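Appendix B. Chain record.
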Amino acid sequence: MHTLASQPLLEHLAGGPLPDWAAFADEVQPRTLAAGDALFETDAPWPWLCVVRRGLFKLAYLREDGSERIKSFIPEGGFFASLAALLPGGRTSFTAVALETSVVEPLSYPRILGIRRAAPGVAEGAACRHRALRAAQGKARARAADAEPRAALPALSA
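Structure tokens predicted for this chain:
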């Protein structure tokens, strides 16, 4: 069985140990990429959630003229997926390139959905925790906005 960097992330999102983790982990094949190697290109089937075990990835949209627009950089411990490619028959909307020697754990999205179906309470618990976290973040942003000094508006003359 592999020791996976993704296990703590997935268990945190699920709120506890995942059912059948050993079988899931045995299916994951970490990939090592050299600097400049593409994990996937634009418009490719890629139904995997990727956790960066080591290294750094650049995610970029390719423009028609061949230039790129950087979407984001994903460091060690981060994760990414092309949401469009996770849909049945979907394809990636950007490219993912290793900027240095990197190791990534591609996690099968269909397999993750299978775990969810096998333990529906795990998914429901994760959804509740996600909503609570988002609500807490919103309240924190509101408190921070209230604490910011505001410039006084000039008086209107009649």
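Further analysis of this model is presented in Appendix C.
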